[in-house]
Amino acid sequence: MIHSNQLAQTVAKLQDNSLSVEEYLEELRTRTEAIEPKIESLLPESDRWSRLANEAEQLPDTGSSKKALYGIPVGVKDIMHASGFQTRANSSLPAEQLTGPEATVVRQLKSAGALVFGKTVTAEFAYAEPGPTKNPHDTNHTPGGSSSGSAAAVAAGLCPLALGTQTIGSIIRPASFCGIVGFKPSYSRVSTEGVIPVSQSVDHVGFFTQDVAGAEIAASVLCEEWQTIPEGMNRPTIGIPNGPYLQQASSDGLERFRTHCSRLERSGYDVKEVSVLPDIKAINKYHERLMAAEAAMVHHEWYQEHGEKYADQTAELITEGYSVPTKEIAVGRNSRIETRESLTGIMDDHDIDIWIAPGACGPAPEGIDSTGDPIMNLPWTHAGLPTIAIPTGDNIDGLPVAVQCISKFNTDEHLLKWGHDIAQTLEP
After folding, report:
1. Burial of 427 (0-12, 13-18, 19+ CB in 10 A)
2. In degrees, to the nearest 5, what angle opens at C-alpha 319 toward C-alphas 201 and 283?
3. Looking at 91, 148, 150, 170, which residue is catalytic?
4. Which Pfam families is this protein grouped with (predicted)?
């Protein structure tokens, strides 16, 4: 069920008129009608194709100077408001309670010529209670979450770009499980306006593509003050974060990770092993408690009125959040900056440009009752550092395994530029 649908290639074809938007939408329609019933990545929409056709007709065709994402259909995670669509957040709450102005990122994409392909399935309120979405590589396995529908839709080739959010690991983990590129920018580099929050101190908006080149195009539209990096950059020095953090991965996941690091080293990369994150258990706790406390703040009024409509896992998060003292919230927020500064200082001391780590503990677990463990993504989200999931072309029992690469705060442009060569090197 995996189909090539690389964003950069499609952008180029739509720009030079070697492919029309109408032809492209017809391709997607055929593919979606064949695949979507098996993976359930999209919220149902009765008039999707007529709506898209009408919107495509309204696109201004300016000849050779088309907008950056001209005619590109984008999946929108269903915690983001988009004009003409309900926001349900995979919850049983009344939709009218969840409405709001269109998300800034949706407006940015439309302004760049993109079309809203549709809403994609999310775990309830972007936390842990999964929707019906299945992994396109093996429908007996989870696609990850909470951005499950966005990751699965891109992996299956239904759309070349989809929006996601990450509060612990909800972009990088599903990208890893589905064998695609996921990009989580530096904290606050992409607007979260118009997105139902989980935890405003650590929420990030990012996206999925099948290609690093496509991720760079999307980032140039969505990231504030994007700078174009010239070609010919030196290869980065890569750091392996040795210690208790890395040991959280599964034995299979770690074994494959080591082979990926060796592949990079054999190709000429300078790879250094550095002891880091000795306090990972404390960081994990700070992050999880902060997230619970801030989720309780977000949901307080809804939960007081509709508490019985919440899934058990979401209700447990909110209930825990009520028990977190104000002082502990402050400690959690301060820990974000302390962790960022500590990691940056170690990178400076050892001349490391990027960290590399497993994209998840291992391949996608069997079943869709859980979205998998986000623990390998947590410290990088906590620190707000830009992170990219890069497919390795490798698999365990037919399920993809990926690496994640992390650079210094606000070096998103460099990370994506470096990601091109790393992705090519890791291809078998």
Report:
1. exposed
2. 40
3. 170
4. Amidase (PF01425)
Is the model's pLDDT at 328 over the cut of 80?
Answer: yes
Kindly state the greatest CA–CA separation across the chain.
59
Active site residue 67: no
3-state secondary structure of 354: strand
Average pLDDT, stretch 164-185?
A: 98
pLDDT at residue 230, as a whole number:
87
Both tokens of 216, joined, read: 């760079």
- Is 64 a residue of the active site? no
- State whether the Cα torsion 336-299-146-215 is positive or negative: negative
Catalytic residue among 66, 77, 184, 408: 77
What residue spans define the domains of the chain?
7-222
pLDDT, tens digit, 9 for 90 and up, residues 343-394? 999 999 999 999 999 999 999 999 999 999 999 999 999 999 999 999 999 9
> Omega before 146 cis (within 30°)?
yes
Residue 250 annotated as catalytic: no
Helix (H, G, I), strand (E, B) or coil at 120: strand
Contact (Cβ atoms closer than 8 angstroms) between residue 412 and residue 189: yes
Q: Across the chain, what does the average pLDDT equal?
A: 97
Q: Of 41, 146, 148, 201, which residue is the catalytic one? A: 146
Q: What angle separates helix 212-222 from helix 104-111, to the nearest 10 degrees?
A: 110
Distance CA 377, CA 202 (A): 12
pLDDT, tens digit (0-9, with 9 covering 90-100), for 254-296 = 999 999 999 999 999 999 999 999 999 999 999 999 999 999 9
Q: Do the beta carbons of residue 88 and residue 196 sit within 8 Å? A: no
Strand 399-407 to 354-358 pairing: antiparallel
User: What mean pLDDT comes out for the span 145-171?
Assistant: 98
Give yes or no for a contact between 343 and 239, defined as CB atoms under 8 angstroms apart. Answer: no
Q: Could you please state the CATH topology (level 3) that the domain comprising 7-222 is classified under.
A: Amidase signature (AS) enzymes (3.90.1300)
